[in-house]
């Protein structure tokens, strides 16, 4: 029994490290992400895959509202990005705001897919560029009565 206690102690210590790998379950209803400050944070996709890496969300927009999402990127996530708004059930639009508060607007017609291209090649450890940037995405209706479902995808490709 004396030999078993140290082994159990090591196992208990190691268990804490595994906590960071637990899956976080989404709430049953979408949080009220109707402001910049309450934007739902998406994980950053990795830039190491030549075929691209994606993060995204299925969303439902209420009439008269805007839904906000954000992605924080560092040097390892930097590259060329495509932000897609697709699988629309109504005429919704997409706005992307970069770290310099520059706005990019995509207003496709009807329920066609929309895409915005962005490059974060200036993000780095050294030089004049920022170490980390936050990209903000806003999904909104073409009219005040537009409501519907959508898929928002944030793709990263090697820069």
Account of the 3D structure:
The chain has 159 residues and is mainly beta. It has one domain: Jelly Rolls (Sandwich). The protein starts with a helix and ends with a strand.
Number of H- or I-type helical stretches: 1
Q: Give the helix proportion (percent range).
A: under 10%
**Domain module count:** 1
Poorly predicted regions are 3-28
Sum up the overall morphology in one term: globular
Beta-strand segment tally: 9
Whole-angstrom Rg: 20 Å
CATH architectural label: Sandwich
**What proportion strand?**
35-45%
**End-to-end distance:** 57 Å
CATH topology: Jelly Rolls
Quaternary structure state of the chains depicted: single chain
The strands making up the biggest β-sheet line up spatially as 1-3-8-5-6
Sequence of secondary-structure elements: HEEEEEEEEE
Give average pLDDT, whole number.
79
Structural class by sheet pairing and helices: mainly beta
Task: Name the CATH class.
Answer: Mainly Beta
* Biggest sheet character: 5 strands, mixed
List the helices and strands and how they pair.
Layout: H1 4-18, E1 40-42, E2 53-61, E3 66-74, E4 80-86, E5 92-97, E6 103-106, E7 114-119, E8 132-141, E9 148-157
Parallel strand pairs: 1-3
Antiparallel strand pairs: 2-9, 3-8, 4-7, 4-9, 5-6, 5-8
